[in-house]
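User: My instructor asked us to take a sequence, write out its structure as tokens, and then describe one feature of it. I'm not sure where to start. Here is the sequence I was given:
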Amino acid sequence: NIFKLVFCLTLLITLKLWANQEVGLPFIKNFSPREYGGHTQNWAIVQDEQGVMYFGNGKGVLEYDGTSWRLIQLPNKSAVRSLAVSEDGRLFVGAKNEFGYLEPDSIGFLQYKSLVPLLTKEQTNFNDVWETSINNDIVYFRTSGAVFRYNESSSSIHVWETDARFQMSGVVDGEFYVREGGTGLLRENNNSLELVSGGEFFDDISIYSLLNLGDDKIFIGSSTKGLFVYDG
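Assistant: Let's start with the prediction itself. The structure tokens for your sequence are:
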């Protein structure tokens, strides 16, 4: 009868609506390039102590405070490939032929401060800074052909160059590591980059992650050979 028909239709509609609910899934908000005012590609993301988020964008650094977006462009208007926040809250930036940090102006708006003037003219054509890593007051900017070590205390830069290729770097348990193609996994020792014991294992294996596992062990992820634990 008509009552049973209405009941069945109501039940089907209710089940349909219930099935369409994404129960248990997190709320996701998508921001289009038109909304955030930048390039379609974003290469890096960090968050400061105040909860403000920063994105390495194809047009510069995007600043998002949860309400509004702001684009901070670099002097050469290059894409920003890497970001890192120091313990004192300073945001360091790695881009194409450019690296530096953000500092507030007289009214509190962050502006870009370049560190490239600390280099010689011959050192300035270094292309993309793919990784920016921080170890206390030391900041490392890694490109394919060089690693730039910036000392905040002395405002000085030390440069390591390679004829091969620096492919991956990072700070693990207070020490800086970098992989050099054809050589293997290197570790900083004073002003040198030295092959770690057994590091030649990675002479032809690309590394894409370096994580601290504790107990003096490092978790290493490669693209083709799997996952490794290095114990020194």
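For the description part of your assignment, you could build on this observation: The mean pLDDT is 91. Try explaining in your own words what that tells you about the chain.
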